[in-house]
# Entry
Amino acid sequence: MRKTFAVFFILILATHLGFAQQPSLASNPEVLSQFRLLEKWIEAQMEYRGLPGLSIGIVFDQNLIWAKGYGRVDLEKKTSASPSSIYRIASITKLFTTTALMQLRDQGKLRLDDPVSKYLPWFAIKNTFPDAPPITIEHLITHTSGLPRESPFPYWTDHIFPTREEMISALKKQETVFPSEIRWKYSNLAMALAGEVVVAASGEPYEAYIQKHILEPLGMKDTSVYLSEEHKKRLVTGYGRRLPDGSREIISFIDSKGITPAANMSSTVEDLAKFISLQFRLEGKPGGSQVLKGTTLREMQRVHWLQPSWKSGQGLGFSIDRMGERTIIGHGGWVGGYRTQIGFCPDEKIGVIVLTNADDGEPWFFLEQIFSLAAPAILKASQPPAEPAKPSPSWEIYLGRYEDPAHFDTEIMIIGGRLVMYGFNYPPERNPEGSLIELTPGAEHTFRMTGENGDGEWVVFELGPDGKVKRIKTGENYIYPKREGI
# Structure
């Protein structure tokens, strides 16, 4: 498997997909060297693991800057993997269901705190905890509903999924596992019901809604809820895990039927790049390819449920994980023969897509290493050369030590060309920069508290008749020049 296939380098991809080109990234030696290293590492992993096929893409802001296919999407036909290969994305479908709900919320057609029963009168599951709050739409998309993980059919065993009617009928035989809002419990049943709310609130069939209001505006032409005949011909072959003799079983196509809003969609690296780029348009207003306004995207991406370990949480639809010092937002998927993962870091505007056609594909493993290896080089290359900060000569009158009535001291200094406040905490911070606040000029003698420790409040230097600082207003309080001997 040392040979790699379907290489799409940066400028070719940017042109092909209609994304804005970034020549600085395309020609940056450090970025390209990291990509070359990444290629060799992936090739070695593919060979060691005996994986059939793998398609990977890296997104930077609005650009799919690197995408590549490895191995085969059909071992018998020897069809090469590429960024345009169609894979089942399974539970990544949940993100599109949640996006639809947020569109309807923004249009005033539903509220997230509405009970599910308001839209689904047939929602008649037995509530084992009658004192618990009613199950709401938000509970469904944050996996805090307390509902069972699945509709009561062994479809992950026999791959025979219930129809919508069978799922609805079977609800009467089920009961809640936990009270709502008590703990996180992943539930495909909950997300299937969320899709039913989309239908009820919009008055449109689920597939038609997703196609018209999300896929078409985003230009995701190779993504579908139900595969067309043309897309089915392009669907990569799914394989089971590698057996001791090295062979793999072909997994037959699986239709999720009544569980469709939780698990049925198919897509490509190229199309999912467009969905990730949407997540970075956080200042956008709805319309065209901006299928959700920026404030709603932010709302979906922030933690709505924090796990006790504080290492992961749940947004609206999105999973949220800590990867070292980096926060990764996204979702994974598994359905027989396919394992997939998308993840992005909003602060860095970098996203990664990993699609595999094997039950042991382990996409998160690849995603994590791609972030670790490629992200630093991309970020460095995307920044213009920094010019040294030049302090203003007028800042000299502000410098010195100040105190509040409780005798806590603050030093106004110039560090690295920046005007800063240094608070003398007791006990002092272990990190010298732990209490450093940058002051960014606003108006005359007026600055905003910025930087990692700044809280956005105004700092106003009030001068006396002698032109010296008589006091500093910080927010709504004051500090004064420190008196000598104290």
